[in-house]
Each structure stands twice: as structure tokens, then as C-alpha cells.
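Exercise: predict the structure of this protein bound to adenosine-5'-triphosphate.
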Amino acid sequence: MTAPIEKPTRENVVEVRGLLSQFGDRVIHQDLDLDVQRGEVVGVVGGSGTGKTVLLNSIIGLKQPEGGSVKLFGMERETMTKAEAAEVERRTGVLFQQGALFSSLTVLDNVASPLVEHTDLPAKTIRELAEMKIAMVGLKPESHYLKPAELSGGMRKRVGLARAMALDPELIFLDEPTAGLDPIGAAAFDQLIRDLSDDLDLTVFMITHDLDSLYAICDKVAVLADKHVVAKATVQELERSDHPWIKEYFLGPRGRAAHKAA
Ligand SMILES: Nc1ncnc2c1ncn2[C@@H]1O[C@H](COP(=O)(O)OP(=O)(O)OP(=O)(O)O)[C@@H](O)[C@H]1O
Ligand SMILES: [Mg+2]
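Solution:
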């Protein structure tokens, strides 16, 4: 008898090749390549306006690329059937930069909304699953019937994360999850993301400006500059990079402080 073959776990769940993104004549991405492997927490950094959110939107299908290819779970986005696109949506969670909670819905209904949309589960089960996700992100049951306007910024981020996790995704996209949080709240949020990744083998694509997050929880950091990904490496490797933007970012005063803190 041969030993059972272990399921390969290091496949690319995201594979971007030669991406071209434009708005009219304005080129945002050109020849952009990026791989994200299963179980990795990848930080995505780059100056404001370099196209981090546009990259996220291109990967999740909210923006049609002008060229190149985007594969998710081995499926080519451009040639995906409707059923495959729905499957990808089910296996993927997104926390948008602006939060994008439904302002008229309670916390519970916000978190339940993907379950209502994508499953035929009975209402009671949906409610229990939503309650579980709310607890998982560290919110108390007292929050269930609050509306987004009644929450603090940090609580809103947690609700957004609970909603992104509602369908037990394998891959999650986070756009500036810790922006606007105080340092303690941000560190707790970082740890939550790291724990989710470790415990659930969740793959994380996280856009961030937060150097502390990069040092604390990211396996790799992808740097967006000059319209493409100029490096994807560990922070330690990036600290030795010769690229001018990377140098300034990691070896500037804030980078040095984050390095020290880590
Ligand atoms: N719908 C759109 N129409 C036209 N231009 C757009 C559109 N969306 C984004 N852009 C442009 O694309 C560029 C990249 O925007 P993007 O939002 O991806 O930046 P970003 O890297 O996420 O910045 P930030 O760190 O400030 O969030 C910007 O110059 C922006 O003006
Ligand atoms: Mg952005």
C-alpha cells in the first residue's frame, strides 16, 4: 500500500497575468502579474491612487479588464459560465474600503444577507449562522438589532468582516480593514484576521496602508508601483529592496518604527 497522497494545498487561488486596466486613455495597470497561494495572507501596498482598489475590483469581477487574464480557483474569469461565477462568489468574501453595509438593515440582517441570497436554508438556520459569525468577530449579542449608524467605526468593520465570512469563504478580500481604527483596535483586528487564516486555512488579500499590519500578520507583501506589482516578498526581503518607493516606504521613519515594534 502506498501512503495516501496529500491534497496539494499550495495552489494559486488567485492568478493574475498581464492585466491591463484603463479608464478611457488612462492606464492604471499594465503587465500586472500576481499570484496568491492558498492559506497565504498577502498584504497589498502602494501609494494612494496607484490602483489597489481597481485591482481588487478587477479580480472580483466588478471591473472588466482591458487585457490580460484573471483566474480564481483555477477558473478563468473571462470565460466563466454563470454557474462558475456564482460558485466563485460563494467561495469569496469581500470587505469593501467604504464598509458598504446596508444602512437600513440591522447587524443581524446585514450579516445574514449573503446567506439569504446564496442559500435555501430555513430562516432559523440562517439566523443561527449569522449569530455565530457575529460572535466569531468578537461582537456581543447586544449588537444584533443595531443599525450601522449606531455602531462605532471598529464595530462596523467587524460587521463587514462577519458578513464577508457569512458563507465560509476560502478567500477573502479586505480593502483597508484597519483604516480609521485606533492602534489597539487595529492590532486586535489584525490578530482576528490572522487567527481566521490560521484556523480556517483562509486565504487573505488585504490592501493596507498600515505598516504594523504588514509586519504583524502578512506572509507576503505585494507592492504596486509603476502600474504593476514590482515585488511580492516578505517584509524582511522588501527591507533590502533597491526600488525607490519600497525603500522610502519600509526604511522611512514609519517603516523603521513598525520594524522596531515587530
Ligand atoms: N470608476 C472610475 N472611473 C475613472 N477613474 C477611476 C475609477 N475608479 C478609479 N479610478 C482611478 O484609478 C486610479 C486608481 O484608483 P484606486 O481607487 O484603485 O486607488 P487606490 O490605490 O485604491 O488608492 P487609495 O489608497 O487612496 O484607496 C485613480 O487615479 C482613480 O482616480
Ligand atoms: Mg483604495
